[in-house]
Design a protein that fits this description.
The strands form three sheets. The chain has a six-stranded mixed β-sheet with strand order 2-6-9-8-12-13, with no helix packed on it. The chain is α+β, with helices and mostly antiparallel strands. The chain has eleven helices and 14 strands. The protein has two domains: 223 residues, no CATH class; 91 residues, no CATH class. A hairpin with a 4-residue loop joins strand 8 and strand 9.
């Protein structure tokens, strides 16, 4: 008899860098950048060292902004301290593969998710969210009539409202059409107990090493192939790294197994290319085993507007979503009113530069064992 719990070992091979943020920014008083290497310090340990050197008062003023110095490297230089002799105060050192500094603003460094032992890892919630979007999007593409009511409702209601909750109720109803089929609570279809994804259990990834992290700059690539670099660096899992985790499927609840998952992956990747990526010069068609994971992967890889609506209706709707949810200042700055002329909405694709190549953020190849 076939067991009802099926466990699959999944391997993601990163093609582009993967960023899973922990919500923290490493500020300029916590790190030193030299020769494309960033040394991040433990401020508590550094304070204790300054106390031993009778510089704790000066260091407190520096941290509180009462010093002339605003960067750690400059403050250490003023105090004639050699950063190389403070190795026991370091948290870690990361390489910055390629970086172009825009002199107009301060440099931001966004930190990656790490466990209690300082090992980077990908939470199961992030991985399951990726699969949920892929499965939902592919089902919408293959079973268009099933979502006719959802499309009509979204089109009708898109004329009204705005702000952060814009069309969130309608998007939730589309998810219910796909996933809420268990009939555990027939009086409330929206009850989470009806969601068959409860039988799709995804583990956290196996811990990675700090050596698997690199610093990648945020790059916006436009449809004509031009690029704009921003003063934002992210701690990312480097291209070529293998991310390992498991999926456990309750076959009595969840209708998907390995073959269906991989079919959905290929279908969603085709949709991303046909509706969006092919509008950008120099971007290749993704293979059928391509997924996108983490922050910076972009609007299209994390939403189901194009799988649900298609390109003809999806582009003006995405343009309207930006118009209804962005502030007036952001609308003027990002100029989404030109998206229909450009033929892509959004009109930038999120990338980075690594070893001389422009790579899409979050792109990975998936293999299920």
């Amino acid at each position: 008899m076939k067991p009802f719990l099926q466990e699959y070992h999944v391997k993601l091979k990163t093609v582009g860098p993967v960023f899973i943020g922990n919500g923290k920014e490493i500020n300029k008083k916590e790190y030193i950048m030299s020769n494309r290497r960033v040394t991040v310090f433990n401020i508590q340990k550094l304070y204790q060292r300054m106390k031993q050197l009778h510089l704790d008062g000066d260091f407190e003023k520096f941290l509180l902004g009462e010093s002339r110095s605003f960067e750690l490297a400059r403050w250490l230089e003023e105090k004639r301290l050699d950063a190389g002799k403070l190795s026991d105060c370091r948290r870690y050192i990361l390489e910055c593969n390629e970086f172009t500094r825009d002199g107009k603003g301060n440099l931001q460094i966004l930190e990656f998710m790490k466990d209690a032992y300082m090992h980077p890892y990908v939470p199961g919630t992030s991985l399951k969210g990726m699969f949920r979007t892929i499965i939902l999007g592919s089902d919408m593409i293959r079973n268009r009539r099933k979502y006719d009511m959802n499309r009509r409702t979204i089109i009708a209601n898109s004329k009204f409202g705005g702000g952060r909750g814009y069309l969130s109720k309608e998007a939730g109803q589309a998810e219910q059409t796909a996933f809420h089929t268990l009939k555990r609570n027939e009086k409330r279809i929206d009850d989470a107990v009806n969601d068959w994804m409860s039988g799709f259990i995804v583990s956290d990834s196996e811990p990675l090493d700090l050596n698997n992290l690199t610093l990648c700059q945020k790059v916006e690539r436009h449809a004509d192939g031009s690029e704009k670099v921003l003063n934002i660096l992210r701690e990312c899992i480097a291209p070529g790294t293998e991310i390992n985790f498991t999926i456990t499927i309750d076959t009595e609840i969840c209708p998907y197994e390995a073959e269906e998952i991989l079919d959905a992956v290929g279908c969603f990747a085709d949709s991303c290319y046909n509706n969006f990526i092919n509008c950008f010069n120099g971007m290749d068609r993704p293979s059928d085993d391509t997924v996108w994971l983490g922050g910076g992967a972009g609007f299209v890889t994390k939403t189901i507007v194009y799988p649900l609506m298609g390109k003809e209706d999806g582009l003006p709707l995405v343009k309207q979503i930006f118009d209804k949810t962005l502030s007036e200042k952001a609308r003027r700055e990002h100029k989404h009113y030109n998206d229909d002329i450009i033929g892509a909405s959004p009109h930038i694709i999120k990338c980075t530069r690594y070893n001389g190549q422009t790579l899409q953020m979050g792109m990975c190849h998936i293999r299920i064992v």
